[in-house]
Amino acid sequence: MRVNFPMDVTTLLLSPDWKGGPLVVLHNKLGRPPSAMLGKNHIWLLPFVKEFPSKIPSGYFITDVYLFLDALFNKNVFHPDPKNPMETRAELAAEEAVKTKRCLQALRYLWRNAKEASHCPRVQMLKDYLAPSPLQERNRDHRPLQDSDTEGEGPADVNIEVVEDSPNSPEPSENGDNECGDSEHDSGDEGHGEESHGEEEGDSYKGRVMQVAERVDSSVPHKEVADTLSDSDESSLKAPTLRLDDCHASPSSPVASEHSQQSQESDPDMRDSQVGSGWLGKFYAKYGRFGKDENTDPNLPRCVVEGDTQGMLDHIRATLVGGNAELEEHPLMDSYIDHCWNALMTYGKYVFSTLKSERHFYDFVGDEKAQEAKPAVLRSSQEANKASTLNTGFRDALNLMKLGKAADEADEECSITPAPKKPRLSDEIAQGLEITPPPVVGMQSAKAMAKLKKQDMGKKSQAEPKRARKVFKGSSESNRAEDGERARVKSFKGYDLSDLPEAALPFRNGVYKGNHSYTVTMGEAAFEILCKHGAYVIKRCADPSQKPASAQVTWSRFGGACNAWVEACQRAGVMSSESS
Q1: How many whole angstroms from its chain centre is CA 176?
Q2: How many domains does the chain have?
Q3: Which of 63, 268, 416, 499 could form a disulfide with 97 if both were Cys (CB 3.0 to 4.6 A apart)?
Q4: More confident residue, 209 or 530
């Protein structure tokens, strides 16, 4: 079974990139699948059509087939959601079995109406394998009207007598005797053996004939009724009661043609289910598959039909949110919309139904969380220098827009306030130096006393500069520590942040709990910088009573980290007064 699948399908199901999804795709869950959907799902219908050409297998059997297929592909066909413990492989297989059975029913419906000349060659290939149902053929052979025709070949005069005895007969019995004279002559002695028939057979036959008589139109003469009851099977199918259309009516029957013309004039759109499908092909060729007014599938949204990418993105967001506040405020919603935009630009509108499914969204979230566990990939110095060179001009323009107003004011204060003078070592030594002669012990010469004084002064002069230098060094280190707390760095736990504006950089000695993100503040506004995903998240606006329309601003969507920072500040209300 696995060998019969196309190579591309086998490669897809065995690849590690396959995360599960619907096998049989149906746009409408309630209506009958159209021919286009049958052509798209012909891979899954072909095995069942080959094995069961004359009937449709049960849903339980199709479920077992899909479970067996999952086992052949090393359980890689169905991927239950780990967040939903109630979802199992059997449940996913049952869902595919229901859709497969609906497609098989629609295929047999099309085959009964038109066995040839399908618009889709794949559907025509499936039709070629189908055969009539033996159960349907057996039921058709045992219909009451056909039994009366086959069993009534011998006692044809019984039909005549029943019709003549009918109270609705307006004419005498001469017509019945004249019409059935040949049948009596042909039957010979069988006509005289009427009394030998059992009562049960006569009663049942009489009841069937009475049923036929009641169905006959009152405007038709009973002479034609006798003709229909005495003719062969072929002529009985042309009776007015069984007439379907002009294609089945006899051209020599004026009543049939008149009746068909009246029915067509009264309701031209009223057609029987057994009429040939030639008119259907002409209708498709002239108006398309979906009617006179629409040439596209009405089940698809208008944005998909028109190819509006932004409309499809809005429809995907509205479908996923659906009044769910948790999904609306999900931190990865904007990242998923960017993923959808890339998928639509790459593969077109054919992946729209997959992108708007909630299961695909959670698969995307799971992949993103799995990537967070991987070590961060540092950018090379060459790439960092190239990115910094490209964004140098924008940083200069950003500074001109007075983004860091507080930083500019601090620079002005630093330029006006004079720096404190460093104390000179000679002053400190002169203030703290006290020369005291040592006590004289015993008899010492003047030369020895002078030498001793000189040694004492040298020791004190060497000790005082060391103390002064040590005090000054400590004061400079404390100033540097204070400056380091306010300084910003261009890297964060392995991430290169050289492309970010200065206001979005982290502090050197800041305390940050996360490994992939940190928070910066600008007045009342607070922003979270997502280093891994490349985005800004507005946690709090400048006005706490306001909320941004979209809290997440992705760098790639706005052409870089600096452009995205300007957009984030505008949404938070930080740059509204300065940029105007």
Answers
A1: 72
A2: 4
A3: 63
A4: 530
